[in-house]
Amino acid sequence: MASSKRSWLDGPQIPGEHDDELSPGRWPGEKLGLPASGPNSLATVARRAGGVTIDWVMSWMAAIAFVQVTDVLGSTPTVTLIFWAILGIVTGWLFSRTPGHMLLGMGIARVDVGGAKVGLRRAIVRTLLTAFILPAAMVDADGRGLHDRATGTAVIRG
């Protein structure tokens, strides 16, 4: 097995989940059994970031209204984070997608069991890891963030 030359400019590589861990597939998600394009293909990083932004703006608007009534949970930034986490956990658990995912035509899928619901535990862990930003920003050869790797999920189109 020949090793390719890499430099520090290439950035970190997160090992994949299969035999040839570091080599990318022919398309993002191929090693997970996902199609190259269309429904059920892996969503792009830009599309996923757009979904998070939509969810954050919704949570921010709700937090502004909430803070006008009471400051029991803190100021607007703190309440925004709390509302965003609740939104991600509840909608990820119940619908396998957040409002931002829905508006951009995406959903959260389990890669270990096709068609199974995400579940409450996975929704909680996934949302909390996303809140730390770094796990969501670092992606593997298939384009999934560390938060998706940790929970056995992927954000797919459709």
Question: What does this 3D model show about the protein?
Answer:
The protein is mainly alpha-helical. It has one domain. Helix content is 46%, strand content 6%. Helix 1 packs across helix 2 and helix 2 runs antiparallel to helix 4.
Write the layout of secondary structure elements.
Blueprint lengths: L44 H25 L6 H20 L3 H5 L2 E5 L9 H12 L2 H4 L8 H6 L1 E5 L1
Antiparallel strand pairs: 1-2
Helix pairs in contact: 1-2, 2-4
Supply the key terms.
UCP021697; mainly alpha; 158 residues; 2 strands; two-stranded antiparallel ribbon; 6 helices; RDD family protein
Number of domains: 1
Read across the widest sheet, the strand sequence of neighbours is 1-2
Q: Low-confidence segments, ≥5 residues, pLDDT <50? A: none
Tally of DSSP helical segments: 6
Residue share in helix: 40-55%
Gross morphology is: elongated
The sequence of SSEs as H and E is HHHEHHHE
Rg measurement, Å? 17 Å
The number of E-state strands comes to 2
Average predicted local confidence, pLDDT: 85
**Beta-strand percentage?**
5-15%
Structural class label:
mainly alpha
Task: Summarize the main sheet.
Answer: 2 strands, antiparallel
The oligomeric state of the chains shown is single chain
Q: Compute the separation of the termini in Å.
A: 37 Å
